[in-house]
TrEMBL record:
Coiled-coil residues: 40-108, 247-282
Location of this chain's protein in the cell: Cytoplasm
Chain ranges of the Cdc37 C-terminal domain: 284-350
Protein name: Hsp90 chaperone protein kinase-targeting subunit
PANTHER family: CDC37-RELATED (PTHR12800), HSP90 CO-CHAPERONE CDC37 (PTHR12800:SF4)
Organism of provenance: Daphnia magna
UniProtKB keywords: Chaperone, Coiled coil, Cytoplasm
InterPro entries, A to Z: Cdc37, Cdc37_C, Cdc37_Hsp90-bd, Cdc37_Hsp90-bd_sf, Cdc37_N_dom
UniProt superkingdom: Eukaryota
Region (Disordered): 1-26
Record lineage: Eukaryota, Metazoa, Ecdysozoa, Arthropoda, Crustacea
Domain Cdc37 N-terminal: 1-124
Length: 350
């Protein structure tokens, strides 16, 4: 007898009629479908990562068992190998439990049109906002193209970055369709980093929001295989009436983006400081190529006090108290770093 119970738990979208009359029903169904597809992708990624971890653990367990058996034959210490075997065995059991949970989770997932339909049910839309074929450019050509784009559209790029309302952003991009591209997202990323480096965090966060809007438009165009310019209206309509899950995804990405910007700005500041310090260090190197600051820090305390007070007599007395080889070693470093510049006579005397 056929078990029809499995057909009771099926997610549907195209035949639902519970939408509000003011909501664009086809778009709502499409967004629900996209959310399902994204969830399925996440599950596939989780399965792939799990299988990789499981295979690695199996291989390590097998390798460790061979080592353990060989160590038993050789009569060597088994404590470390025994501990590794126990840990790997515990992990194997945990992985098996996790695999069972994943199978149950997959079994309980509702069926939908993406998992039960055949290719014959697919729909083909011909020549509706298809993306332009991109000519492959070299890195140098890309850089030149990007610089030219920034120069040509900088005024409008900054104007878009300062907009606050979704409707205004939508209208502006529809009036300036050339801005709907990767170069705009790149410009806004660079602008955000510079703003954060200038400690203009509030303004950076505002521009970051506009940057994520652009990135979501580009991602939507890739998902639908359409020209990004034809996705402007769809994205802004979608974000304004978004369900909780889609809105959360947008906010999470925005938060993560701002954190990346702050981290990158900090790295660039630290790199600039390091570069400036290195340049300063190079400029102060003595005739022998040594850094006077580093040499001073390496001196015995008695010699440090002499250089701090610039007392030559005290320096001569301090040197006389040190073993000859040690005194020569330290004074040579002082000369090579420029801490001590003897005249000709004193040089011969030293």
């Amino acid at each position: 007898m056929v078990d029809y119970s499995k057909w009771k738990n099926i997610e549907i979208s195209d035949d639902e009629d519970d939408t509000h009359p003011n909501v664009d029903t086809p778009s709502l169904f499409k967004w629900r479908h996209e959310a399902r597809v994204e969830k399925m992708k996440e599950m596939e990624q989780e399965k792939a990562m799990f299988l990789k971890e499981k295979n690695e653990n199996t291989a390590k367990l097998k390798e460790t068992k061979i080592k353990y058996e060989q160590a038993q034959k050789d009569g060597t210490d088994l404590s470390d190998l025994k501990k590794q075997l126990e840990e790997l065995e515990v992990k194997r059991i945990a992985l098996e439990d996790h695999e069972e949970q994943m199978k149950k989770k997959e079994k309980l997932m509702p069926w939908n049109v993406d998992t039960i339909s055949q290719p014959g049910f697919s729909k083909t839309v011909v020549n509706v906002g298809q993306p332009k074929k991109q000519v492959e450019l070299t890195d140098e050509e890309k850089e030149i193209k990007t610089r030219e784009f920034f120069k040509k559209h900088e005024k409008n790029l900054k104007a878009y970055g300062m907009l606050q309302k979704y409707d205004d952003s939508k209208r502006f991009l529809q009036e300036n369709p050339d801005l709907v591209c990767e170069e705009t997202a790149n410009y806004l990323v660079i602008w955000c980093i510079n703003l954060e480096m200038e400690e203009k965090t509030s303004l950076m966060e505002h521009v970051a929001h506009q940057c994520i809007c652009m990135q979501f438009i580009l991602e939507l165009s890739r998902h639908l295989n359409r020209d990004p310019r034809s996705c402007v209206s769809s994205f802004f309509s979608k974000i304004q009436i978004a369900d909780v899950e889609y809105r959360k995804g947008f906010e999470d990405e925005l938060k993560a983006f701002k954190e990346r910007i702050q981290r990158r700005a900090k790295e660039k500041i630290e790199a600039a400081v390091t570069e400036a310090e290195e340049e300063e260090r190079k400029n102060r190197l003595g005739p022998g190529g040594l850094d006077p600051v580093e040499v001073f820090e390496s001196l015995p305390q008695v010699l440090k006090e002499c250089f701090e007070t610039q007392n030559i007599e005290l320096l001569q007395q301090a040197i006389s108290t040190l073993p000859e080889e040690e005194a020569r070693y330290h004074m040579k470093k002082c000369v090579d770093s420029g801490l001590w510049v003897p005249d000709a006579n004193s040089g011969k005397k030293e």
